[in-house]
Design goal:
Elements (H helix, E strand, L loop, with lengths): L15 H4 L18 E2 L25 E9 L2 E13 L5 E9 L6 E5 L13 E9 L5 E9 L5 E9 L7 E10 L2 E10 L7 E9 L9 E2 L1 E6 L10 E4 L7 E10 L6 E10 L6 E11 L10 E5 L6 E2 L2 E7 L6 E4 L6 E7 L9 E7 L10 E2 L7 E8 L5 E7 L12 E9 L7 E5 L4 E2 L9 E2 L5 E4 L4 E9 L8 E9 L2
InterPro entries: Sialidase_fam, Sialidase_sf
GO molecular function: exo-alpha-sialidase activity
GO cellular component, one term: membrane
Length: 491
């Protein structure tokens, strides 16, 4: 979930801590341009859970699965673990998190992640959110998420668990950090080190709004790490500081690792607000570097301006959408070390709507090139994910609205696309649609029509990538969304 939902184009910034109380004509849907999607989410393990209502206005969307991520075993691309929110609430989080696992790449089974009271043996939190998963070089699967309470107090905790049987069962449930208001922890991610067995990193932003509503905000980046396969985690500590500039926060921390050098790169968005927190004064993506496995970190380097604007239905801007604005998606070329970051920005629309943009660095992040447009020109696009395979092919996935007809305000036809750049070369671009065309407006409403603040894309180690995404269903109020996955060749 997001404690702040900033926009660089409008005065829409708001503290969750204070507020918790021109497209192309549509075409016939002939199906995906490639293999069919595989459904991951089946059933609802939390259907009977009655925990978590924050107020009489709280609405839970039963049977909804949103905000998926995934991981592939580095030694076997058929061993896949996905994670997602189950039964989304309109005012923050979900009843719980679920894992879908497979050993053949096709048939998915389920296990409950122990991150909320709805899950058997779960942590002492009423709701859970922000699922993440990563697999280490020894096959250990690390899952993380955030537990949240709103009824007894505003309380948030960072949680991890590990699986040594491919996601069937989960052990070593750990609360790596917990806070109560005026602090709020947000947007954790987890990265298993691909070359250091037993090592993984959990990073997030920790908001301090003390006291609430006074226009005082600090939101540094925090880290906790394990060196023993998730059995124990280090005490959480600040590793990206924001105290020098008043009313500044970070969000979207995500670590990628260069397999040749072992260097860690943490990417995030850095946002500064006006004195009353009503507007964004400045926002940019940045990164910090560690050459000693997360013990020490460099000063931040600017990657790109955050030019994202409010995510809305372009035919009816009063209808808010919720996607990956402010959240970077980075990757590193495993062969050359070239760094990439995909993100939502409005550079190519004159500030009218977000497109999918890409920047790159060939010198270890010291300098960055100008943004490149990845999604179609003139079409709003959202939620980019990026991965680079072992031959240097850059793959990006995203939602776009190319099938929306002018004047259509009753539906929002949406599709998920895959773009590949052979060796990162924009001139060697290919594109294909990997989802059916579906109506985004059927999604649960949580600060906007919500498919998730992110989706997932990873390499499979065999010359391809695997994507995970959310689609909606029309006319099914008790099954508005499902999670799907597909493996795709990149050459």
């Amino acid at each position: 979930m997001r404690a702040l939902v900033p926009s660089t184009a409008a005065a829409t910034a708001a503290l969750l801590l204070a507020t918790i109380t021109g497209a192309t004509p549509a075409a016939a849907d002939h199906g995906p341009d490639g293999p069919p999607l595989i459904k991951v989410s089946h059933g609802d393990p939390y259907a009977d859970c009655t925990i978590g209502a924050m107020s009489p206005d709280s609405v839970v969307y039963p049977g909804t699965e949103v905000e998926p991520y995934l991981s592939v075993d580095p030694h076997d691309p058929k061993r896949v673990v996905t994670v997602f929110q189950q039964d989304r609430w309109n005012d923050g989080g979900a009843r719980g998190l679920v894992a879908g696992w497979t050993t053949d790449g096709r048939t998915f089974h389920h296990s409950t992640l122990p991150f909320s009271l709805c899950a058997p043996g779960g942590a002492d939190f009423e709701r859970a959110t922000d699922p993440w998963v990563s697999t280490g070089p020894d096959g250990t699967v690390y899952a993380s998420g955030e537990g949240v309470d709103f009824t007894k107090s505003t309380r948030s905790g960072l949680l991890t668990a590990t699986s040594r049987d491919g996601g069937r069962t989960w052990q070593n449930l750990t609360t790596t950090h917990v806070d109560e208001q005026p602090f709020f922890n947000d947007k954790p991610s987890l990265t298993a080190d691909p070359i250091r067995k037993g090592t993984a990193y959990q990073v997030w932003n920790r908001l301090d709004n003390d006291p609430p509503g006074t226009g005082s905000l600090d939101g540094p980046g925090y880290i906790s790490l394990t060196r023993d396969g998730g059995r124990t985690w280090s005490e959480a500590r600040r590793f990206v500081d924001t105290s020098a500039v008043p009313n500044t926060q970070t969000i979207g921390h995500l670590i990628v690792v260069d397999r040749h050098t072992g260097t860690l790169y943490d990417f995030f968005d850095r946002i500064t607000y006006s004195d009353d927190l009503s507007t964004v004064v400045e926002a940019h993506y940045a990164m910090v570097t560690s050459t000693d496995a997360g013990e020490t970190w460099s000063a931040p380097v600017t990657v790109a301006r955050d030019t994202s604007v409010p995510e809305v239905d372009p035919n009816d801007p009063a209808k808010l959408l919720r996607a990956a604005s402010t959240l970077p998606s980075p990757a590193v070329d495993p062969k050359t070390g070239t760094l990439y970051m995909a993100y939502e920005g409005s550079d190519f629309s004159g500030g009218r709507f977000d497109s999918v943009q890409l920047v790159r660095s060939t010198d270890g992040g010291r300098t960055w090139g100008a943004p490149e447009l990845i999604s179609p020109n003139g079409v709003p696009a959202f939620s980019p994910s990026i991965a680079v395979d072992e031959r240097g092919t850059v793959a990006l996935t995203f939602y776009d609205l190319r099938f929306l007809k002018p004047g259509d305000t009753t539906t929002l036809p949406t599709a998920y696309q895959l773009v590949t750049l052979a060796h990162g070369d924009p001139k060697r671009r290919t594109e294909r649609r990997i989802s059916r065309i579906f109506d985004w407006l059927q999604a649960p409403y949580a600060g906007g029509y919500f498919l998730g603040d992110y989706q997932g894309l990873v390499t499979d180690g065999k010359g391809g990538v695997r994507a995970v995404l959310t689609e909606t269903h029309s006319g099914e109020p008790r099954n508005r969304t499902d999670v799907y996955t597909v493996g795709l060749r990149t050459r």
